[in-house]
Amino acid sequence: MKRGSAFYLGRLLAKARWWVVGLLFCVSLLGGNAGCSGDRTEAVKPVKKAPQAAVSLDYGQVFAGKVVAGEEVTLAPKIPGRVAAVAVDVGDVVRAGQVVLRLEAAEIDAAVRQAEAAVKVAEAGLNQAALGVERAQAALEQAQENYRLALANYERGKALLAAEAISPADFESRFEQPYVNAAGALKTAETAYRQAVDQKERVAPAQVEQARAALAAAKTNAANTQVVAPINGIVAARNVDPGELASPQVPALTLVDIDTVYVEVGVPERVVSRLRVGQEVKVGVEAVRATPFTGEVASISPAADSRTKTFLVKVRLKNPGHPLKPGMFATVSFPPQAKAGSKA
């Protein structure tokens, strides 16, 4: 038992001796390197350069913002009504002029037909007014001829009465009364003619115009049963379904154009004072890719926000394929400011 213990103790001492040797060797290596390094440092001589203005850069130019659509529009029918059909859904691509929603239009279509009939009646009345003028003119000419004859007979009767060739009663019945009747008929014919002309030139045209205006209004109402996309874009929200009531006050659809997007960012006065429209900047959107996008300053607010004391800057980005979506978090890196004055 004692012999075995001595054997194991010898082996442990031998291992310990090798560990100590290795440790001393490493220390000597480190010491040698340090010495060499010191020698090298003393051997290096500084190179004298002519003093010049160096450039120090301020890299505090990265600001957080969000992506917004290049254009966003909300759509609602111009008149209230029940939805007949919605032609698009969220995510659909639409083109300007495309019908995206229709209201039920049976009553409005009936109103259009009624207005069309009223226009035809008014136009017929205008034609009748023209014929009325012709008839009134013929009647007036006849009344004028009758009056001329009656006046001549009246003058002849007065001469006969003055020569006592006829009695007063005979003069009244044969000459005076026919003259009075002819004069009255002439006045009536003149009034009728004036009224016919007024009907043709003023009343009937006004009735036609009124009927046509009513028809135009009915057609406008019919057109307003359709909601048309005003821009090329993508449906971002749909708030109605067929059978539901829609009104001008409640948006039915939201369209966004994201062929071009903007990043809105608040910039402090120390930075905004040296920005300019059209200036190139880098935009990071980690949700899309690691490498930054290149954009340009599209607009700079002339006044600071009263709450944040920052100026709103909008950065424009082309968005082919639409990887950038409204609402995404973004960072904008503005070019650093160069400051001269320090010396190397």
TrEMBL record:
- Which GO molecular function terms does the record list? transmembrane transporter activity
> Which keywords fit this entry according to its UniProt record?
Coiled coil
Question: Which compartment or compartments is the protein found in?
Answer: Cell envelope
Record's keyword annotation contains Coiled coil? yes
Q: Where is the CusB-like beta-barrel domain?
A: 260-335
Q: Which GO terms describe its cellular component?
A: cell envelope; membrane
Q: Main subcellular localization, coarse class?
A: other
- The answer to keyword Heme applying to this record is no
Q: Which domain of life is it from?
A: Bacteria
Which SUPFAM superfamilies does this one have?
A: HlyD-like secretion proteins
* Coiled coil regions in record: 126-153
Question: Which NCBIfam families does the protein's record reference?
Answer: RND_mfp
- Record-linked PANTHER family: BLL5650 PROTEIN, EFFLUX SYSTEM COMPONENT YKNX-RELATED
Concerning its family, UniProt says: Belongs to the membrane fusion protein (MFP) (TC 8.A.1) family.
Specify the protein name: RND family efflux transporter MFP subunit
Q: Which organism is it from?
A: Thermodesulfitimonas autotrophica
